[in-house]
Amino acid sequence: MKSRNLIIGALLSALFIAAALISFVWTPFDVAQMNIPAKLQTPNGTNWLGTDHFGRDIFSMIMVGARTSIAVALVAVGIGMGVGVPLGLAAAARQGSLLDEIIMRGNDLVFAFPSLVIAILITAVFGPGAINAIIAIGIFNIPVFARLTRGAALPLWQREFIMAARVAGKGRTRISLEHILPNVTNLLIVQGTIQFSLGILAEAGLSYVGLGAQPPLPSWGRMLADAQTMVSFAPHLALIPGSAIILTVLGLNLMGDGLRDLLDPRIRVERT
Amino acid sequence: MSLLSIQNLDLSIHGKAILKGVSLDIAEGEIVAVTGESGSGKSLTAFSVMQLLPRGTETSGSIKLNDQELLNAPEHDMCKLRGNDIGMIFQEPMTALNPLKTIGDQVMETILLHTDTSRADALIRAKDILSRVGLPPETYKLSRFPHELSGGQRQRVVIAMAIALRPRLLIADEPTTALDVTTQAQILELLKDLVQDFGLGLLMITHDLAVVSDMADRIVVMRHGEVVETGETRALFANMQHPYTKALFAASSHEVDLPQAPVPDDALLVLKDVVRDYPKPRTRLFAPREYHRAVNGVSFTLNQGERIGLVGESGCGKSTLTRAILGLEPLQGGAITAFGQKVGPDMPAALRSGLQVVFQDPYGSFNPRHKVARIITEPFHLMPTPPTGEERQKRIAEALLAVGLHPDDANKYIHAFSGGQRQRIAIARALIIRPDVIIFDEAVSALDVSIRAQILDLIAELTQSHDLSYLFISHDLSVVRTITDRVLVMKDGEIVEDGPTRQVFDAPRHPYTASLIAAAPTLPDMKANADVSA
Amino acid sequence: MLRYSLKRLLSLVISLIIASLVIFLVIEVAPGDPASFMLGLNAQEDTLNALREELGLNQSKLERYLTWTFGMLQGDFGTSYTYRTPVAQMVADRLWVSLPLAFYALALSTLIAFPAGIYAASRRGAPGDVAVMGATQLGVAIPNFWFAMMLVLVFAINLRWFSAGGFPGWEDGLFVGLKALTLPAIALALPQAAILARVMRSSLLDILNEDFIRTARAKGLTRRQALWRHALRNALIPVLTIIGLQFSFLLAGSIIIEQVFYLPGLGRLVFQSISQRDLIVVESVVMLLVFAVIVVNFIVDLAYAFVDPRLRSRT
After folding, report:
1. Which of A49, B456, B522, C106 makes the best surface tag, with the fewest CB within 10 Å?
2. Looking at the predicted structure, is the pLDDT value of residue B529 above 50?
3. In contact, B240 and B249? CB cutoff 8 Å
């Protein structure tokens, strides 16, 4: 019962990750290949999920789109963890110090710039693109992980096993790596899964408004943008990429919840 | 006829049997104490009476208040009884009150819930009842919030809520366990008075036999969910039948065989005029910071072979002093020298190795992700060349054997061990580097009496075999009395008395020491009782 | 309480100063100087110089920063290069779409989430709880702009209850305006409501495990009474944080939703400005958005003190 979420979530996530990986070596059709006579077909035997307004195979586009979404979200989580976790550990190791104060105020500041606003600033100056989307989402992930790590580390610093380590002469950096980090990894894994799913949503949103992945790179968000004008007579153009996003995000979220139940039911995730 | 009658109460949670055939009676105006170690089921017995049980609980038997059956009574009926006919007070006063509501509102709530009183009348009654429990409204306004009161004062508010409607039965679940001895004495006195004035029956749950002997008319001793012995207090103490009762009593008044104190040799640890200030939160935005002086001019010397106790109530500064001695906190004045060198956050590692520590919490003292071997060898970090390979294994095995564990335990994770075993591991961690001084920081306070007795014996043995000197910090006077030969009494950051343990306990010179000793509940002296009955 | 408010106000001012510095510096690092960036590669040298003059690029960076910030303090956000109208005026018109939309969505989200979260918490583990939690799990996964498209498809195109987009303005009355914002607000609110309901539920369940709830039950309160009288206000503390954060997401999210519904709000203005490389408008609108977020979080901080007496008595 407890692991049901985990299994469903892991299966869904694995499905899309597999689709993304397979797309590197094989797709049913070439995603760049247009076939105007066969445009706007509904799902059928040849084109399993139909074709778009240029007659491109939607199934193939979903596979390659998964690649974009997952790559962007994964790298963004990597940036968030890679920068946020050390910052959080450092802030907790010297609670109340100037360093802590600077890190936490910096976090508040980034929170005042929602990822979309960061993306707008970046694209306004450097132009749109997948890399800039990654940076925008990644920057926004930093304070999430920094706050989470600091919040989990602070009570640990009050625990007696940390005092014992200090009596054993270990420095704050060493204690952070040896004692604090291993005790917050469960939390980081769970939150990482959630941020991964949020990253996929954010990438879709940015691509939808044209700030994310640029043509010819297929992306779920842009497929939806293209579908918008045709939704009244070809709803499958919107339904299929939409479902792909929902199922991936749902899968990751279920997996996150399942992991939490499995690793430590007391973990609280932030989901904003 | 009895006020409360529990007959053959069985209780299981998710199919696991917790209580087996528990029976007990309470008459009006009677204090019945249920006692036992953790896991005895004493608290669940109390919660069964309230019918406030965790999910998945199944019960059978009978719990009658006068003639009314409470067990599995409809929730609606129980809500009418709770607060009205049965009041309850809890162990942890710091969390027992809603932090967002004033104490007046919380006391009035009981009154408004069960009676047709107007708010104005309820306010008057709340004031009365708060005065009755020792919080006169002139000093303690009803508009105060819980965080503005101390632990003892909050417990008084909880009592006021419980007795506001003069219930017939009051249940107290470890009501003084979280409080200091002097506060404990006052709360126990208040409870006794209330029983007398209101003629209510008091069901008191406590692990502390000394409290039991002071308070109760009758005692119920529980173990593993069963009642092992019950009887009138004086008679039961004079003539204990069940071996468990005897063992419990023996453990509670356990005295260790401390080897003869050697003649004080060279000074290991010297504290001179130690001062530690904490910054207070700023009261005004640009006001200069104010400081709280947690430790104020403390001086003492620990010589080779000495076993010193440090006692005091919470907030007296003993924890801060402990951390300062361990070199974890900077000082604002004075100096601590260990082995002739200044102690501080920057002291050399080699020096630190002479000073080790055992903490209170057997569950918080270890990194749950490390195995025992890694945990107890952590102090090796202090050595210039830590032992490796065979030598390391040998040292681990030695340390584990010394504390009564098996060398194979080194490869287990910490969750495989009980509280008492964990405290042994904590001692092994302190011993492994062969320190000259060990600081025991409330090292037995979280343990059940029987385990506590074993750990105290272990410390006494190690004192003999390892030639230990130690500083034993505790709030528990009875423990300090047996495990030390010199004692320091601390109050408000200062040492108010310093002398040989026996002398300080028998003839305290400082009034504060005297009040501490007077407040501490004591077990009846078995030998004296035996003489009376003979 | 006053001390606490002043302290929060001070940190608000500091945040605003730092945010404005960050935005200013990001715009500064635009490839080339802002003038050549705005005009593109083929710009004439004299047009460039004219723009440089207008932007004050011959002044020092510090001077320009101060001119920009003090201008904003007086309501002068500069002049749009493309439209040749004051940015303040352009923004003001569009704020009348974006702000009501964000608040409408916030109200909807709260109105849906509170009852759902309380209901689920009070029936923990029961079918009702499982159903609500399942729905929120789905709600969290739905991208709001896709949901907006589906709403248009069903309620505007098929059922014809609402128009598919555009905004008639507030001149024809509150109802007409609100009606045009209803589908966008629902699209924005539902995913956020799902998150908020989950937070509400877990926060309530945490509080229901607290000792003081047991004390309240020992007084004779029913489970339901204990939840409403004692748990709810305590559970509100973490919920408030999320509401504060959500406002910034709703404001940013409304930028995307405006694209779906062709609403003339800040979002449209931003995208037009980006495509026209009108950095003056982008800079000011971003600052305005950040200002709104910081102010809302300031209000949330004050709300904390209102809920929690422990904060009031502290500094």
Report:
1. B522
2. no
3. yes
- Could you give the percent of chain C with pLDDT greater than 90? 32
Name the minimum distance, in Å, from the CA of C83 to any CA of chain A: 18
Within 13 Å, how many C-alpha atoms sit on residue A231's CB side?
A: 27
User: What are A20's two structure tokens?
Assistant: 């993304």
**3-state SS, residue B409:** helix
Alpha carbon of A201: minimum distance to chain C alpha carbons (Å): 6
Count residue pairs from A and C with Cβ separation < 8 A: 137
DSSP chain C: -HHHHHHHHHHHHHHHHHHHHHHHHHHHTSSS-HHHHHH-TT--HHHHHHHHHHHTTTS-HHHHHHHHHHHHHTT---B-TTT-SBHHHHHHHHHHHHHHHHHHHHHHHHHHHHHHHHHHHHTTTSHHHHHHHHHHHHHHHS-HHHHHHHHIIIIIIIS-SS-SS----STT-HHHHHHHHHHHHHHHHHHHHHHHHHHHHHHHHHHHTSHHHHHHHHTT--HHHHIIIIIHHHHHHHHHHHHHHHHHHHHHHHHHHHHHHT--SHHHHHHHHHHTT-HHHHHHHHHHHHHHHHHHHHHHHHHHHHH-HHHHH--
pTM score, two decimals? 0.86
Contact between B225 and B41 (Cβ < 8 Å) = yes
Q: Do B50 and C7 touch (CB under 8 A)?
A: no
**8 Å CB contact of A125 and C18:** no
pLDDT at A1: 46
Is the CB of B161 inside 8 Å of chain C's CB atoms?
A: yes
**How close is the nearest chain A Cα to the Cα of B435, in Å?**
12
* Of the listed ranges A198-202, A214-218, B47-51, C298-302, the one predicted with least confidence: A214-218
Is cis: bond before A216, omega within 30 of 0? yes
Residues 146-205 on A with a CB inside 8 Å of B are 159-161, 163-170, 179, 182-183
Which residues of chain A make contact with C274, given a CB cutoff of 8 A?
120, 123-124
